[in-house]
Amino acid sequence: MSKKDLKHHDCRNFAPVDVAKGICHLSKKMVSTDSPVCENFDELSKCRNCANYTADKNEKTMGTCEAEKTKPWTFEDLIAVNCEMYNAK
Amino acid sequence: MPKKLADILEEKGMPIDFQYGSSAPEEMVDREVQKEPDSRPNKLLDLYFDTLSSATVEFPYWYTRKWKELDAEVPVVRRAIALKYAFSHVTPTIFPGEKLVMGRARYYRGSFPMPWESEGYFMAKEDELYQDALKKGSVSSGEVSQFGAGGGNVTKSFGNVVSIAGKFGMRQEEVPALIRVAREWVGKSVDDLRYEYEKMMPDYDLKENIMKSVICMFESGFTLPLGREVINYYYPLQYGFDGLIEICKERASEVAGNADGDGISGMNRLYFYKAAALVLEGVQTWILNYAKEAHRLAAMEKDSTQKAEYEEIAECLEQIAHKQPRTFREALQLIYTVHIAVLNEDAISGMSPGRVGQVLSPWFEQDIEAERITEEEVIELLELHRVKMTCIDCFASAGVVGGVLSGNTFNNLSMGGLTRDGRSAANRLEILIMEAGIRCATPQPTLSVLYDEKLPDEFLLKAIECNKTGTGYPAWMNNQSAIEFLMWQYGREGMTIEEARAVAIGGCLETSPCAWHELTLNGKEYVVPGGAGQPTSVGVHFLANPKILECALFNGYDHRTETQVYPPHNKKLETYEELWEVYKQYYEMTVDVLSRANNIQHDIWRKNNMSIFHSLLKPDCLAKGHHIGDMGIRYNGTYNVESCGTANMVNSLAALRKLVYDDKKYTLEQMKEAILDNFGFKDAEEVGSYSLASQEKKGSGETWDEIHSNCLLAPKQGNADPYVDSILKEYEDWFCEMCTEHESLYAKPMYACQISVSTHGAQGAVTLATPDGRLAGTTYADASMSPYPGTDRNGPYAVFASATVWDQTKSQNSQLNMKLHPTAIKGAEGSRKLLELTRSYLRNGGFHIQYNIVDSKVLRDAQAHPENYRELMVRVAGFTQYWVEIGKAIQDEVIARTEYETV
To answer: Nearest chain B Cα to A31, which residue?
Structure first.
């Protein structure tokens, strides 16, 4: 994903207040979830950023976790900060 | 211009906006008691006001992913592993300025669906949700700010946010995952399975017709199977999570392979202990993930004060994840964490904290004595607790969250009452809890006083001061009546008078069985109370009393849905007694079929979706090795039958008795014709308002004017009129007895519960005009003892006299709401008057009273200009809610209530 497509909910510094906005831990300001990120962007662990994630060819935003034997379905925006199998690309 | 009912009644000298005692001042009068939150809670409360109800699929995703893998596992262990996996994986978020941390989901006001309970709603909406999810677009701040005016409800999709259930927003990128998760539960959820088994009941069609006609509007088994009960914080407070895991493991090894004389469920204990340890480990990891997040934030934080606060948070969480809390702050964090963990385990409303001031008193006393904390610091923490509890959202369908709950979560905190040995239990911390409630006025936790003659005036007058903020809390409950009810219902399960004194309120005002526990802190011993019963307000809910009467009048037929709901009785109803008998027959038929259906629902729930974490918190699940569903809990006879619309039903019976049977002024056929034609008025939906005052005539015809006028003038509940009060008494004596003839799945007799919550709006909307003059589609009277708005014309003591003609200890509760103008109780003298008014009702056998101390003009202005009233709260029926977050039907009803200008 190019940086211009990244949104605040992709950033580790962003505390999501609700589905539309959140607080930046660095600036302490309220920012829109969908507004462009700044130079301090810190990538949040999400399935889409994991080497174990394979995107579904048929269904956009969905994919598979290859790290588990059962290869469960998952989705690219699933936050994986506590996933023990997360492997950053 | 169509003529309004309000104008017609004004002409007849029966003004509908009735003010008792005198006239309210011309100008709007504000609340007498107004204080501001402390700085920190104020900022966090402001953040709440600007926050949308937000749902995420994280927890259900992780839960379902693990659950799918384990189809060969023992069900309770399978569920425990899935819960542990979900708790361990959800994302922790900590917001700047917080001292109390953690939440249901990563959002400030976050929640999530539980499709293992019911997935049908999402599947039915699948196409619609997908379509919304596919509509990409940038977020417009203008669009978002529109929601601020209506509170945090996301009633419409916008930008990348999809509205679900008319209240919750979900990021569009999560919606496809939500649909996939929901699909995983098709045919497996409690809802789907119960349907298969309910259909085996010979009278299943009757049940379906009752639900379709909204004679009943809530099925608890697959919507909110737990709640309306008092939580128990004792075990983690005493033993810490490490201690509890140790107990579970020890007990598992003791019972492994042993039935111990119980050939049916003795072996289940091993699996329960294993499951309990697993979930405890999951909750531990969840807490420690927040601690890690606090350390991470501390490491990146430049501001030294904030940095230190993050480290304090981490230290606090690391302590409570393992051990008994050491300080008041740690104890408060622990009980809040435990509360949220329970809410994340299952779909729940009304999981009430109980007597928190008494539970936390040991830490408060020791911290104050050691000068580790000041009272001002305690108040700040209690304010923060209020904000966090207010952030709790309950995720369920629109019908449940909107129609029943008005978005409320009913976390009722009880105060006062008696100690185990019968002394006043009111304490200093409870005074501070009220002070926090005054400064930081929020809907949660709502407060209740367990009124007892032994409570000191200082405590009672503080409660009155709190009432005068206009927040609607504390509600006043009759402690002695509650104890009497508990002994009546739970004596058969071994309850003693000492144990009954541990009572607290669950949900709105559900009297709940509790127990005493011996707690040790730093070598000093205390006795603290905690919940000890199954959920209440599970069973048969809510029954629309006027709608059942309507069916009795129309031979079992519902004109709105054009359905023959009940078998036709084919009686001419020539006498009042015959009408009353038919009414009772239909009612009993309703309770019978619904209680059996509900038993199936909850049985499926306990077999596949049993409570584990919540179970281990309550006595005697850990001791017995059985979860709630296997009756490990001490008190099991908690299922009940809940009614709605009592005043309209009683008033209607009185009108029929007077006008048709006694005075023979009209025939029953004439009355029925008038009802079907809505007394010549338009339908409430067409008018766009559900209050009686706003209803408009269809034309200038006067066909039904006289009959309508006489219906309105017929005797009404709430005026100390024996004609109508005798009908109320006869109904209550029958109803309270009838409920006990039905049995819950735990083979215990049910009992009466008489609160309306918000169902008087929804059930009023489906009811034709009623013989008391209420028009079609308009809201019923709230509660059970509240008179119909504007019909109580003889003052508060007449209302009390009517309400206490029956023995209220035979019901779990009764409910009376009263609206007072602030000037009626102004000053110290006013406070005394309000206390005496309250005492008068409770001393005469009333169970509950609560007040809206507000100028009706404020409410009208708030309805016209909601953007100016984001913080305004009102008491509805057992709960306080933000004005802007309740539906118009209920707003109209609160405005229409009689306003007392003097007491």
So the answer is: B141
- Cα dihedral B430, B431, B435, B441, rounded to 10, equals 40
According to CATH, the topology of domain A1-44 is Ubiquitin Ligase Nedd4; Chain: W; (2.20.70)
Token readout for B485 is 């009810």
Which residues of chain A are within 8 Å of residue B138 when distances are taken between CB atoms?
Answer: 34
> B1-30+201-231+353-903 has which CATH code?
3.20.70.20
- DSSP 8-state symbol, B628: G
Q: Is the ipTM of this structure higher than 0.85?
A: yes
- ∠ Cα B106 B111 B112 (to 5°): 105
The CATH code of domain A45-89 reads 2.20.70.100
Does B138 contact A at CB distance below 8 Å?
Answer: yes
Token pair recorded at residue B707: 């009959």
Sign of CA dihedral B743, B749, B752, B758: negative
Query: Is the torsion defined by CA of B796, B798, B801, B805 positive or negative?
Result: negative
Degrees (nearest 5) of the Cα angle B811, B816, B820? 165
Instruction: Going from the first residue of chain B to its last (903 residues), give the mean pLDDT of each consecutive group of 10, the final group possibly shorter.
Output: 77 75 88 93 96 96 97 97 98 98 98 91 65 41 31 89 88 94 94 96 97 93 94 98 98 98 97 98 98 98 97 98 98 98 96 98 98 98 98 82 73 97 98 98 96 98 97 96 98 98 96 98 98 96 97 98 98 98 98 98 97 98 98 98 98 98 98 97 84 81 90 96 98 98 98 92 94 95 93 95 98 96 95 97 97 93 90 85 83 86 87
Measure CA B389 to chain center: 14
Burial class (CB in 10 A: 0-12, 13-18, 19+), B688: exposed
Six token digits for residue B500? 């009954």
Catalytic residue among B394, B466, B508, B739: B508
